[in-house]
User: Fold these one by one.
Assistant:
Number 1:
Amino acid sequence: MTDTTEPGNVGPDRAIPSSLNQLYREVILDHYRRPRNKGALEDATHTITMNNPLCGDVIDLMIRVADGRIEEARFAGRGCSISQASASMLTGRVKGRTAEEALALSERFTRLLHGDEALLEDAGLGDLRALAGVSKFPVRIKCALLGWNCLEELLERDPAAPRLPAAEGE
Amino acid sequence: MEAHTTPQTDRPRAAPLDVAALRAQFPILAREVNGHPLVYLDNAASSQRPERVLARLDRYYREEHANVHRGAHALSAAATDAYEGARDVVARHIGAAEPAEVVFTRGTTESINLVAAAWGGSRLGEGDEVLLTKMEHHSNFVPWQLIAERTGATLRFVDVTPEGRLDLADFDRLLGPRTRLVAFTHVSNSLGTINPVRDLAARARAAGALTLVDGAQAAPHLAIDVGALGCDFYAFSSHKMCGPTGVGVLWARRELLEEMPPYQGGGEMISSVTFAGSRWAAVPHKFEAGTPNIAGAVGFGEAVRFLEDVGLDAIAAHEAALTAHALEALSDIPGLTLYGPREGRASVFSFTYGDIHPHDLSTILDQRGIAIRAGHHCNQPLMDHFGLAGTARASLYLYNTPDEIDALVEGLAMAAEVFGGVTSVG
């Protein structure tokens, strides 16, 4: 019919909006394509699976708690770059923390996603701050929070008990 | 299109659509999204409405509204005329033997639930089988699961070929003396496959089974003649064919409707109510308990008139040209996988693009004003069948243009750039 525009043939007026560059930061794409701590955690003390029925994203979060601290955290699942990168970052950030510290981190991260720019200075959030661009895309906030919802559910279910039976959320 | 659609002998040969003039009739198409002209490619989810449908709704509420079939006053008569007039328009449009065969529902989903509950609930039992297909929308899936659980009937599912067509050999293998009903979609909402309704209905009839057709994705695009199709139930929705939301149709042959018990009880559907029991109103009102979506039906009637004025043949020809353009443009993109058949298909395109998740694609395209759907499209069993978590889906309608397909292609190029290239998946 008419000429087909070749992909890659993007003219000067076709520049990527900065909001998109802020959303899809390199570190996020890196975590999406090379997720950290992905796969089963054999001796997990706490595991849970949560999904977002609207879009089909799934996260399995597995942690091992000992001496009141999160010793190890791994995840599995599938979904968009935001949900997977956020879960990948989560596993790195919560290691070595108490349940209380991890929940406080989750709370600060949630505020960051809702546009609280003061938290961009929060070193404790580390590379999670790369997800701040999600605040400009309200429908994607739930993607970024899926792994954290898993964490909160796991820890708030019984933060004092390090030896919950595994696989309850399966 | 295919042999099972009816030639519209009473219409002149289709002239090409004046798409610019057509677009001017849809106010929403003039708006911008994220600083770009709206490119609306989510028509399989819901279409947009032309001015005349909006005006009809407005006029109904301003000048004609009262409850239907009740008052002896002028407005009630006006509302009843408008409501029943819409039924006449729809009945004629789909070739129903009489308007009484057209039941107004909330939409395709309710139409199918009505059949599952009223027909299935009273006719199905242990040992009976309902034959579905693996490409059904959840709305032609879950109602049958519910009724199978209640009645002890068994559900069977016709396989889908790798190309995305129904496996007809499997259909014949599964169709048997225990099959009471065959229920399948006319056009797949995710693959775009146009199923051979007339052929399948004939096979079902020969086996002594009834046929229900989910026409939600077909009625907006094809001229439907229920008599020629040879099915027993045909369900479709207004909002996918330029009409209001919240209204749809169940068409069934009169004797089936008369045999079936009511679906819901209430006002409107009775002829007399006493403490001892009630008698049902005649069809179709037996199935329209409570005050119906009067304005919705009136607007739907106007939408059908609109589509007829544009011409279903002209719409089909326009969409065929768009389909050819889209297939060519999308096939040229490295890393893009398109699902569904190449031929005998509707203008709905499901695809994946390398390792870019459909939701990320949707977010990126939205920044350029392009609306597509991302996800499982209420087709989870089908997605599982193809080993997919979901797809991106662009679906076209009469007001879409080749330029909009090109905008989609450019948007995909931008997505690849945002992601630093496209990595193919496993």
Number 2:
Amino acid sequence: MTVTPEVSRRRFLTYVVAGPTVIAAAKWADASPGLLGGTDMQPIPSAPGPADIHDLNDLLTDATKPTADMITVTVHKDGTASFALPRVESGQGITTSSAMLIAEELDLPVSKVHVTLADARPELQWNQFTAGSNTTISTYTPIRSAAAAAKQQMLLAAARELGLSVDDLRTDQGVVHAPDGRTMTYGALAGLAASSETKQVEVQLAAPSGFKVIGKPHNRIDAHDAVTGRKKYAMDLKVRGALPTMVCRPPTIKGTVKRVRNLAHVKQMLGVTDVAVISTGVAVRARTFGQCIDAIRALKVSWNPGTVDKESDQTLLKELKANELPFGDQTGNPAASVIDESFTFWWKCNSALEPNTAIADVRKTKATIWSSLQSPILTQQEVAKQLGFDTSQVTVHVLQGGGAFGRRMFSDVVLEAVEASQKFGKPVKLMWHRTDEFRAGRVHPMAISHIRATYSGGSVYSFEQRHTSVATDYTMGFGEMMTSSGATTPPNGEGNFLFYSQGVWNLTVNVPYNFGQIDHSLNETRQYDTFHSGSVRNLYNADAAVARELAVDQLAKAMGQSPYAFRKAFLKDAQSVGVLQTAAKAARWGRSMPAGTAQGIAFHSEYHGKIAAVAEIDCRPHTVNRRVHQGVTGPRVTRLVIAVDVGLPVNPRGLEAQMQGGAMDAIGQILTESLHLHNGYFLEGSWDDYYYTRQWNVPKEIRVIVMPPSSDTPGGAGEFPIAVTKSAVACALTRALGKVPREFPINHSDPLPFTPFPTEPPIPQSRRDGLRHTR
Amino acid sequence: MPKHTFKLNGKRVSVDAPDDVRLLWVLRDLLGVTGPKYGCGIEVCKACTSHINGKAFNPCSVPVGQLNAEDEVTTIEGLPKTVGKDLHPMQEAWLEHDVPQCGYCQPGQIMAAVAKVREARRAGREITDADLDEIRNICRCGTYFRLREAIKAGAQHM
């Protein structure tokens, strides 16, 4: 397959596909970034790092290029258009933004565009992987091109029918108008415009200056279904015979079953239909999930040890410190002063609210899967491998997810469901218990981040960062088997580290300031599969950028500058300064604040965009010591302002939602939420142990400023607010407390505020006293 | 197996299940009412929040055998009917403020919000920020800020 280059900036080659109504297909396009220069102090320009020139999103976009012509838009005889998006919607708003792109080019109301999620299609290769905030970046041009081709086909048909030239016609919201007042609807034209052959056509995309939909706030297209309870997730799907199934899991990470001591007894429990040992534990199928829980709690299992039974937080911390790479030799000014800052970032759970769920129906010669998956092609290939099938024998239906955050990149729950379904000879609906999510789910590994910077006079001469982390599993590759094998096949985890961990580090971690010599490197300990690990929203920058911004504040302090003025002086370009200024102004940076409260400011550049945040925090006793039943209070972020420039915002309302939502992750990760590793397992087992942000931690004022378009192409959004908001909150905390926090979340080493659930049985019983708590 | 009878979203339903099975599973697995979501099963995440006789409760923590024939259970599916409209004012406010992201927690959030407003009214007052701080429902997408705005707006039309 060859890629046809862009004809001109807005002209693209597309396809009209043979079919009963208009079907149009389109290819990829390039986006190109740019850079600028500095101000008042005397910044020493830093050479652009790899992430400045070609970042992770460019790589993900490149990966989609050869197969993007598989993206098709269809116009139907009822006047609606449809599109099967080869990505997963799990709250980001990409079905809405994709519908907007199609509506723009087709000139059709958004309500008439139906976006569904495509089944796994292996021919799409790397082009069905939802990750890295890349969906809008990589699909922006092809989706519009396909829609534009569909509209062009209808205009041609209308011109034929009306005996006019295309140039005489105009469209308005699904209707073609002729100068003499005659009209034809898209519905009437859909069949007439159908092509009997597949052929290449050239289209011109709408000019950004004339956009009617793109860039205008639009509510989510699935909001009505969500608020009425009609929106269906894997767990809500009715598949004949797919009875509730759960897994009794080991007491320590990656333990395995030695022997089930009472299999016969549990098989006879009320409602239970099947029990069998699978790779990850003991699977139980029953009439209700409640009866699965009862059976799991009744199982008596002897377990083999796991991979880290002797390990705890402190042993891993020691290990990380021992594996930190040395800093380089100081260069530049030998008389320069040094700041040296080190931080610990504890384990984070990326669990969504909808637990891992998959429906599997494995038959002799075929298997059908339903699940919310970020890498459905890899899932299909892994299922085929597990069953000894060809991929054509495996159908993977991708469902909308109740959150993803990196949790759905791997096929874990699907492979369990497939194994159980095969063993039982029956369909299963396999769901993880919440406690499984914390204790057996994938985590963002703990890390330490050490920064050393040198400065003298008005210049920063060097900025070095040594980030040392327990290995992160990136073996999902680019969501299919070939790139996955590149990570899994080389021995000793080298493929994962060399091709992915280091690659992701180099393509995402950056220093957006003119700090002279920049040197940042990553080291990892353990194999990628020692722990259940994986990507969490914003990858390394969720920690690495926070360490950077905290160090920037310390540099500013040492050099006698305010955190704002310092950043403004050292940021690399005018666009960055503009975003920083916007946030500072809106937040009234520097306003007088009572003792025990403070503002913090931070900046970050990633996903082809720029973002700045100002957080205000209240650390006064009456706030910190608030009491919430089974909750953690502590310092509260009282006000948050975020200014974000994503190039071209497709849906400013969706972007605003992503910023607000990411900020909630950020607040929790700095102040309250972490997992504690203790003798081979995580102590947390519930949302009342793992202190993700709750209403009592939420700022009462949040303002998101979406910067006007600075480009004619969109950047990424989903992960963007994490690093900057975490940084702003951490910097505010430092200023309010008058000392630099050394670990995040700041409460990690406090006495445990909860009593951990036992590890055997592995899940807690549901309560019986709910009627006593009605309100 | 015992038969349980109660009112669900305005209709009388009967279901065969052991007394101890929690109502959430009776609703979801046996009756096919999937608006109330599973998020923890231990009355923590509140994703299954529904109403019993007009008050918020979590069906994950109520054995079905504890229900009486006259108990009225309302899930998100039955909420609009309680006001005789296609949508409850709280749902309208949700749409107005474009609250949902993934949407998974939203049925529980709406049911909790309606009950919270009613609770304040029973105490002879309107909902406050302190009341909002008490809502325990988890939203992993972090729609908390819009939830607060929508609850205040929805309350005005309740």
